[in-house]
Design goal:
It is a single chain. The protein is an alpha/beta fold. It folds into four domains: about 240 residues, Rossmann fold, CATH 3.40.50; about 210 residues, P-loop containing nucleotide triphosphate hydrolases (Rossmann fold, 3-Layer(aba) Sandwich); about 170 residues, no CATH class; about 180 residues, no CATH class. The protein has a nine-stranded mixed β-sheet with strand order 11-12-10-13-9-14-15-8-16, with helices on both faces. The chain has a seven-stranded parallel β-sheet with strand order 3-4-2-5-6-1-7, sandwiched between helices. It is globular and about 100 Å long. The chain has 26 helices and 35 strands.
Length: about 850
């Protein structure tokens, strides 16, 4: 793979591969099966699919290749197939163009080849398609092809080819259904199956598809179809990506800013101008960011103008005029395109003649700044640089709008811009919406309407960009820089592999010249030392490598007794190679190979002995554990030694080091990054999610503020606001910070394991800064709801954090409102922590315990 998978992607890929391996075993016994991969929009389903297919064809460290694998990739849109094919090649250097075959006439082969992916779509399998008809029916039409093959080679239609492929024991057909929730609708009569279900059930081939992999954001329809497939005999395995892990990864934008009219009237042109201004400002901000990062590739934002199915040409033309007037230099014709269906012809909107563009080409065609669309791009389309949406859809079409927004929340850099919420946001302007239907969009985007699982964006109406508060003294920021935060462990790698990753990056960035050589030499010395210390166990392990043991069975004709005789043969190079493969997995290929060269002599026997010794070292548990500990210690030393230098790199490079840091088996301490911008709502929303135009209450002294030094607290409940005002009223209060509730560089995180053993992070609500005896001290103040199922687990987590890092804070306190009174738990107090750690009752009862004090 060319990309490093996110931890949730790597976990999901392994789960899917395990399910496919089980499915292959079931097919060997004649049973069809299906695997469902469910992931929210923006989770990187195509990247995961690339990793799965690459492993199927070529194997990986954790999966043995299937040499019989043949993949058919199916969707209901040829444009989606083209986009998916391109993305597979972008994601994997092994999935080359010659392995990714778009099936189109003339195509006629007896069987599909192993190790290849064949792209099919609904139209290619229709009854009128040239692919599904026999040679006699097709010869007149096929004669128009300049490269038409002889009749003997065109004797196979696609159904026959698929049938022969399935029937061949040397081939295993895997059918990948892209956007698997689509295509299973019954026809009007309710009797006839769709093309995809006919394919799955084998109605046209005579053989049901052995293994189906369905990939979708909403898998329910696929699940029901698989239950109905093959008369209920098809077994289904399900792998679901946790939406929270996708949000934490930074692949999706954090914030959606909604603009709607404040009063009745025709304000579409006014709001379009506002959208154009947002596009211009976004363009300038991305250019500034690229310059600050010394990045050659600059994000060029796109404005999507969504129109009804029957658009008003004059209205659209007026909108384009308004946009062009706001953009410096205006909009040339080439900067405006549309993606309407109907053959790709141009459309006329007032004075504008707008050419068609293939949806999958919009992202790469940066000269396109405005895209006119209906519904075609709401599913399957992918354009992360789409930053602004103006929708002329009426309010009753909110589902179409929110589905399109679901495609637009992807981060252009496939990562969160550290500390800059403005660049992690998307703007949506709705000229024809009222407060009620805008509230439905809010519910949808925040996950309260589960049409697309995983929505968890912050949605704001009167969103304003906040920057560093000039009234906050520099001493507070110095205290901020010293605060500890923990990172969630990713899917871990062996400590030696992690060390080598770190060494390569330090060397590449010029931070430590010769880091790779230094790391290898250090590990060589460790192995040398422990080879002597554990000489006896190592000698036994060497003998086991050299000795290949087996049994001979003896029996006499007519007799019933069988005798067993043990034998030992000396290992050949192939057997030694198997042992060395284990060493490469345990130590990493780089260290294993370099250690062979380190201890090998000059002749061939010495080299063979070196391979055996290295393989044997990897089988001694004590040596592996000691080596891992030494590798972790050296990595920690280098992270600490080069911490300041790493912070001086650009964001992309810093993220690489953050990823390596998180590859440890346990949570790692790091420092907080400085927030650059925040978007907060200066309007108050009522409990039903509808807009109330009363301005949000505001307070001072927040680290991030508007130009008046204010921060809105309308998103906080009444007692949380009381806590903020009480804390700020203290004479020693200097500043405060609303901690973002997500994993990001500017959010203080505390790490814990959930009840299933998965690593999670929690983010205390508030950090307050006080001047104590002339020194700025930070306090964690966390209003802690006691009604949630995991509230006790999170309270114990915060108590554990206080035990480890309490001396670095002035206070670490959890709050709750119980019986109308505000109560606190002082988590720096050892006795309080002891009660919390042993507590088995409700959190509400805990706040009634004598350890809880009245808040004042």
């Amino acid at each position: 793979m060319k990309f490093t998978l996110k931890d949730y992607q790597a976990d999901s890929v392994l789960q899917v591969l395990g399910a496919l391996d089980t499915a292959r075993g079931l097919w060997g016994r004649g049973q069809e099966s299906s695997v469902a991969l469910t992931a929210p929009t923006g989770a990187g389903k195509t990247v995961m699919a690339a990793a799965i297919i690459e492993s199927l064809f070529f194997g990986s460290d954790d999966f043995d290749a299937d040499p019989t694998a043949v993949v058919v990739w199916f969707s209901d849109d040829p444009n989606l197939n083209d986009q998916s094919r391109t993305r597979l090649m972008q994601a994997s250097d092994k999935l080359t163009s010659d392995r990714l075959i778009t099936v189109k006439p003339p195509f006629s082969v007896p069987e599909l080849d192993t190790g290849k992916v064949y792209f099919l779509n609904t139209q290619r399998l229709s009854k009128t398609s040239l692919l599904t008809r026999g040679w006699e029916e097709r010869q007149d039409e096929l004669s128009g092809f300049s490269e038409v093959a002889p009749p003997d080679d065109l004797a196979w239609n696609i159904w026959e080819t698929i049938s022969e492929t399935i029937d061949d024991e040397a081939r295993t057909l895997y059918l990948v259904l892209d956007e698997a929730h689509r295509g299973f609708n019954a026809r009007v009569s309710g009797e006839r199956s769709t093309i995809v279900s006919r394919l799955v059930n084998g109605e046209d081939t005579g053989h049901p598809v052995p293994i189906v992999l369905g990939i979708s954001a909403t898998i329910d329809r696929f699940r029901e179809a698989m239950k109905a497939a093959s008369a209920g005999a098809r077994r289904t395995f399900e792998v679901a990506v946790d939406p929270a892990r996708v949000i934490d990864s930074g692949l999706l934008k954090d914030t959606v800013v909604l603009d709607i009219p404040a009063e009745a009237g025709n304000f579409d042109t006014v709001l379009v101008t506002r959208a154009a201004r947002k596009l211009r400002e976004s363009t300038e901000r991305w250019a500034q960011y690229a310059k600050s990062q010394n990045a050659a590739d600059v994000v060029v934002p796109l404005l999507v103008l969504q129109v009804p199915n029957t658009p008003n040409p004059e209205q659209v033309g007026a909108a384009l005029d308004a946009i062009s007037q706001e953009i410096p230099g205006g909009l040339p014709r080439s900067a405006v395109r549309h993606v309407f269906g109907g053959g790709g012809q141009s459309e006329t909107f007032g004075p504008w003649v707008v050419d068609w563009i293939e949806p999958q080409r919009v992202e790469e065609t940066k000269s396109v700044r405005v895209l006119v669309a209906k519904e075609a791009i709401s599913t399957g389309w992918d354009c992360p640089r789409a930053e602004v949406l103006v929708s002329f859809r009426p309010a009753q079409d909110h589902t179409h709008i929110t589905q399109l927004l679901g495609r637009m929340v992807r981060s252009p850099l496939a990562r969160r811009v550290p500390g800059d919420e403005r660049l992690n946001a998307v703007d949506c302007i709705l000229p024809f919406f009222d407060r009620t239907t805008a509230g439905n969009v809010v519910k949808y985007m925040t996950g309260l309407i589960p049409e697309i699982p995983g929505g968890a964006q912050k949605v704001v109406f009167d969103g304003r960009t906040l920057v560093r508060n000039p009234d906050v003294p520099e001493s507070v920021w110095a205290a901020w820089d010293a605060l500890p935060t923990l990172v969630v462990p990713q899917r871990g790698v062996a400590p030696v592999k992690r060390l080598m990753l770190l060494a390569h990056e330090l060397s590449n960035d010029g931070l430590k010249v010769g880091a790779v050589r230094a790391a290898l030499e250090e590990m060589h010395a460790v192995l040398d030392g422990y080879a002597v210390r554990y000489r006896g166990k190592l000698d036994d392990a060497v003998n086991e490598i050299w000795n290949v043991r087996g049994q001979t069975l003896h029996g006499k004709t007519g007799g019933t007794k069988i005798t067993y005789t043990e034998f030992v043969e000396r290992a050949d190079d192939r057997a030694i190679g198997v042992g060395f493969d284990f060493a490469k997995k345990a130590f990493g290929g780089e260290l294993a190979t370099s250690y062979v060269n380190h201890i090998a002599g000059d002749d061939e026997d010495d080299l063979r002995d070196a391979f055996v010794t290295t393989a044997a070292l990897a089988t001694v548990k004590e040596i592996r554990e000691r080596l891992d500990a030494e590798a972790d210690e050296l990595a920690a030393k280098w992270f600490d030694q080069y911490r300041v230098a790493i912070k001086g790199l650009n964001d992309e490079r810093q993220q690489v080091y953050a990823y390596i840091l998180a590859l440890a088996a346990n949570p790692q301490e790091t420092s907080l990054g400085t927030p650059r911008s925040r978007i907060e709502d200066f309007a108050v929303m009522d409990p039903d999610g509808l807009l109330d135009w009363v301005p949000a209450p505001t307070v001072e002294k927040h680290l991030m503020s508007d130009d008046r030094g204010l921060f809105p607290v309308g998103s906080l409940n009444d007692w949380e606001q009381d806590v903020v005002r009480t804390e700020l009223a203290r004479p020693d209060a200097v500043a405060w910070y609303r901690n973002p509730p997500r994993q990001s560089v500017d959010s203080l995180g505390v790490v814990y394991r959930d009840e299933l053993g998965n690593w999670r992070s929690m983010h205390p609500d508030f950090i307050f800064f006080h001047e104590i005896q002339g020194e700025i001290k930070a306090s964690i103040v966390d209003p802690h709801g006691h009604h949630l199922e995991d509230s006790l687990l999170k309270l114990k987590t915060l108590a554990a954090f206080a035990a480890d890092f309490g001396p670095r804070f002035h206070r670490v306190e959890a709050f709750a409102k119980v019986g109308g009174k505000m109560k606190i738990l002082d988590l720096k107090d050892a006795d309080t922590r002891s009660v919390i750690n042993s507590w088995m009752g409700s959190v509400e009862a805990l706040y009634s315990h004598p350890i809880a004090k009245n808040y004042a």
